[in-house]
Specification:
Layout lengths: L2 E6 L6 H12 L5 E6 L14 E11 L2 H13 L4 E5 L7 H4 L4 E4 L7 H19 L7
Parallel strand pairs: 1-2, 1-4, 3-4, 3-5
Helix pairs in contact: 1-4, 2-4
Length: 138
């Protein structure tokens, strides 16, 4: 299973260090490719074929850490490649949102898109630790 995260905009300080940290930690259990695009117009052409497309959206389904692990396990069983979409400061357009398979929320609050990227990577890392039966913090 391949995991891709397509983000509008480049990661910058202070988020770049945390982004690199979680991407490195994920290498052991579930490598994640992060693709940065300048604007949303460039998103569609970067989506890997046959991927299960997930938009991060505050109106989406919220998952606990254990629910993230269960969700990830189901995708692995289905042998589905995953592609997460993170919009820029304006979010994702209605056109893009209409093409996704699923919406997942990182919480009801609005957060900086660069912070959302770090939170997603952290939750994927935590889910892989749970699935590997390794210690993690709730």
């Amino acid at each position: 299973m391949n995991v891709t995260v397509i983000v509008v905009g480049k990661v910058k300080a202070p988020f770049a260090e945390a982004d690199a940290h979680y991407r490195k930690m994920l290498q052991r259990h579930q490598p994640v490719e992060v693709i940065e695009v300048r604007d949303e117009v460039n998103v569609e052409g970067r989506i890997p074929p046959r991927s299960h497309l997930i938009a991060l959206d505050r109106g989406g389904r919220a998952l606990s850490s254990r629910a993230w692990a269960s969700w990830l396990s189901e995708r692995r069983i289905d042998a589905q490649d995953l592609c997460f979409l993170i919009g820029g400061p304006e979010g994702l357009s209605a056109r893009t949102m209409s093409s996704v398979d699923e919406r997942i929320s990182l919480g009801p609050q609005t957060m900086a898109h660069q912070l959302a990227r770090v939170v997603l990577l952290e939750q994927l890392f935590r889910a892989t630790k749970i699935l590997a039966g390794e210690p993690y913090h709730l």
